[in-house]
Structure formats: C-alpha cells, structure tokens
Amino acid sequence: LKRTRTSHGVRAGTGMAASRLLVALVSAWLLLLEASPLEWIGGWGSGPVSKKHATDELTDSNFHAYLKEHPVTAILFYAPWCFYSQQMMPAWDLAAQKLMIHDPPVYLAKIDAHHYGSIGDKYGVNAFPMVKLFVDDTVYDFDSRGGRGWQQIVKWVNLHIERDHVLKSVEDTEHFLHDNDLNVVGLFTDGQNESVFDKSSRHFQDVAFAEARGTEVSKQIADRLSRHASLLCETVDVGQSSKNEMQVTLPRTGMHCEDKPRNPQRPDWTDTFATVVTGDHVMVRRADKPEGWQQLLQLKCCDEDKPNAKLAIQVGVPSVVMFMPHDERFAIYDGPIDDVHQLDKWISARRNPMVMQLTHDTASKIMEAGPEKLAVLFLINHDRNEALEAVLREAAKPLRGRVSICFSGTSSDIEKRLMDLAGASQDPLPVLTLVETHHGNGPSHTARKYRLATDGLTTAGVVKFIEDYEDGRLTPWLRSEPEPAPEDNKGPVLTLVGNSFVSIVHDPKLDVLVDFYAPWCGHCRKFEPFYKELGTRLKHVPSLRITKIDATRNEVEGMAIQGFPTIVLFVANAQGKKNMVTYQGNRQPDDMIAWLHRHCGIKFDDRPPKKVDSPDPVESGLLDPSEEDL
Fold this sequence. Notes:
alpha/beta
C-alpha cells in the first residue's frame, strides 16, 4: 500500500486513476482485516459459513435435532486451525452438491468439533478432520486412507445407503444367492410396506440384502428359496494350480459344483472353468486356456437337487429369511416385520458364527458388532482347552444374540493386542473376559471389561454371568499395580494405582491434580523434575493433592488416555460429581500454580508456611554434644 502514496513517487498524471486504485486497495485490505485469519488464508473460517458453502454448519445446540430431521446425514468433524480440515472443505462442498440430487437427498453438514468438544467426545472424534455417516441410529466411519476427494466421499456414502436390491425373477434370485453367501431376503405381498426392511439393510455393512415386491413374484422366489435352503451348500477352496486340471475332495458324496467361481473376479481376468463331480471328488479344468490359474479359486458345491423330493424347509409369503455360511446356515424370521430393532437384533445374532476364533480376518467382524453392539466373551489361553471350549460352545446357544463368544491364542500380533486390551499379558492363563464394544465413545472413555473365573466353569455359570452383566450387577475389572505401602508413598507427588484412584481422586473435599504418564515417554521424564518441584511447593496445602499414575499399567473407569503426559485436575465439589479440567499450558511450576489458582474448587495460599525458630538443643549432661545423636 505504501507504493500507492504520492509521497512515494506516484506520478501526478495518474492522479484520478491512482486515487481510485488507492480506494479500491484500501477497501480490499479492510475486508481482509474484517475476516478471520483462516478465512484470509484458506477461504473459510470458524464463523457463519452457510452463505459460502453447500453444507450446513452445526452447533451443539442443533446437532441432534438436525440428525432427527435428516436421519441419513454425513457429518464432517473439523477444527478451524487444522490444515487438513481446510484442505478437505472444497471437496466436502462438492460432494454435498452431488448427493443433494440423490433420491432421496443425502445431507452433508459440518461441525467445529474443537469448539464443540462435547459433541466430538460423544462420537469418538480424536483427530481432524473426521467424517461419519449417520443412518438412522447407526454410525459409519469414513476411511480417509483412500483419499478425501469428493469422488471418494460420494462412493463411500452410496456404499452404505444404496442397499436396495430388488429381485424380479427366479433367475435374479439365483445370481444373488450365488454372489452372496451371507444374505437376507425379504418377500412382500402386493402393497405391503417394506420400509422397515429397507432401513435394516442400511445397518449392516457385511450382509447383502434383497427383496421381492408383489405377491406373485414373491411366491415364485419363495419356492426357489425353499429348495435352496433344503440343500446343503458349501464353499469349496480349490486354490491355485500350475496345471490345467486339478482334483479336489468334496465334503461328501451326492454333490454338484457350479462352474462359475465363487470368489470375486477382477474385470481383466478371462478365466472360465468346467467341473465334473465323481463320488466325493470334483475335477476342475480351466476352459478358456490350456494352462493353470493363479487366483485362489473357490467353487460353490451343493447337495444334488432332486425335483420330486419333499423339501425339508418351506418358505411362506410374506417372510424374511437369512442364509449364512455357518451354524444352521438358514433361518426364517419369526418376529414383527414392522419392528426394525427386533429385525436388527435377529440379523446381528446370525451374521457371525455363535463361536469364533480370533484371527486377522475375523477381528473386525468380532469387534464391529453391528447395530446391536454385542459384548464379546473372550477365552484367552496359550493352548486349546477342549473342556472350557465345550462349556462355552454349549452356553453360546442360549446366549445367541446377547453376546458373542470368541477363542484366542497368545502368539499372533492380533492376539497379543487383545491380551493387552484385556489386561491378560501378566496374568496366569486361561483368562475369560467380557469386553464391551459400545463403551468407547470419545477420548475420555475406554472399553469396560468383566472377568469370570474359569475354575469349575459350567454352562449355567456362564449364562448367569451374562444375565448379571445385562442386569448391571457386575463390577468392571480394572488393571492395577499393587498399592504402594504408606511409608513408601509420602513424597511430594503421591503415587496412585488403579485400585486407589477413586478413593483419592474423587474425594469431594479435595482438588486433585493427576499426571497420567508412561514410563517410556521422554516428555514425561523431562517433565518429572518440574512436577516434583510443584508438589514440593504445594505440599503444605491441605485441600490439594499432587499425584501421578502410570497409565500403561493401571486403568481408571471412564478414562482412556490418548497421549503422555496428560495432566488433569479433578475439581473439588462438595455438592456432587467432580469436574475434570485438562491442563494445556506451559509445564513450569509457576505457570501451573497460576492455573491451579484459576481452576481449583477450593482457594489456597501457595506461599510456604513460616518456619518456627527452634531453640538450641539442651545438653543432657550425660553425653558429650558430639555423642548426643549416637
């Protein structure tokens, strides 16, 4: 701007033009000054943005009402200071425009989850930006590893909401059953409302849904489903072959195998196959080329279909049925068709086997427990224990749909992570622990765990344990170091463990500052002398405790520490529940003392008490002064 002033050499011949230019530049500068720094840099800020963007800006006061009004909504949880949040905003706006033409429209909105931290905590927002799709009462997380462009956002949303697969013929049904071994099929009469079925279909990522609309076509498909359910089908793993032909053993005689591969095929694969079954063997031959194949081939093989044979299963209309590649393999829904909660619960109970083994492939299925968020009962042991496993397999039958049951070893990476989560790394095995999959909402919460002794374990005992859990009669199991002896815990910083945390920290008459640390944390070691100095300077304050806890060896109900060190003040409150305030400032003692003065519930004087001069010691006359203390 200095270059526009005449005193710095603007020529007189451009007087009027220069004057207009100066006004324009000054006006533009004032507009920039009025905008927030982030609006200047990135084109948007933390203020009202509804006029600039295609997505609605939410607050903590209208967030839940917005979701109630728009039950299918994607939310961007952002922070104004976050570069990646700024970078994603244009793509989010463009995705919103694309999805508004969806039928019905899909709404995209955003919320400053840094400013409205309670909303972010409730939905587990611990990084920025984070995207979640809300479909009725189910929440799906966006995996940003595939990119944050509008194309990825739109594709991800469509994956979860475009679940309507309408069967118009028996041939459609054949294709659907072939491509999906875990599926739910709804058969509806003329004019029947299938909206509850459609809503349930959006609650499951790993279950395929299809429906037939109309009495006549539903009856035709019901007959085919009856025949398909009466035949026992298997997925046979053929694998790779360097030769043109390969013979594989079948589970039993009397089966036939389809030529079309069961495993997904890439568009560029030209492989076609021909199968011939003899007894309990199938000969697989590659038909398109006289060579082998490199894909891990799978085939669908079923018992031989006998047209005149009496079918063991009869599917009626209307009805909802489910096929699954485990347990009884087929089920007919016997609940109310207009109750989405009951339908979800019925599907959740059958989407996984009643008893599973923990592996890398099954881990996500086990912990992503569907809309019902079933807790998981883990048996952790070095080796197989057939007696305990038999008890749990028997208990799984009456507990189906109420809890998942899983066996785990101790050697693989995923098994070691479970042991750490369950607190079983240092405990004698076997360990039987119930782990919640729904309690970890936000950075200040962790999954609750409950232990059941394995000595003398019975099926009735397992069922009673789950009943007590459902009725809220169990106490969560928390990992804890042994409590230090009182004589060893008298320093300026009091050491807490899991078992002593509540009695000290939640004393309503005390302000308690807690340092959640990790022994391996370099920042924690650097902070330790400053924290000890703080404790020494405030040791005389009767209403204040300076404490620490090793958060890697101790667990606290309702707390999950995301970084080290984390310093939290539990504010004294004689009237009720204590509030928590996290310290975010400079870690010098003077700064922390000033912060404590602002946030403690009980006022205190940080000045050290005056020392009382003690008189000179009186000689006893019995000993020489140099011998008095001997």
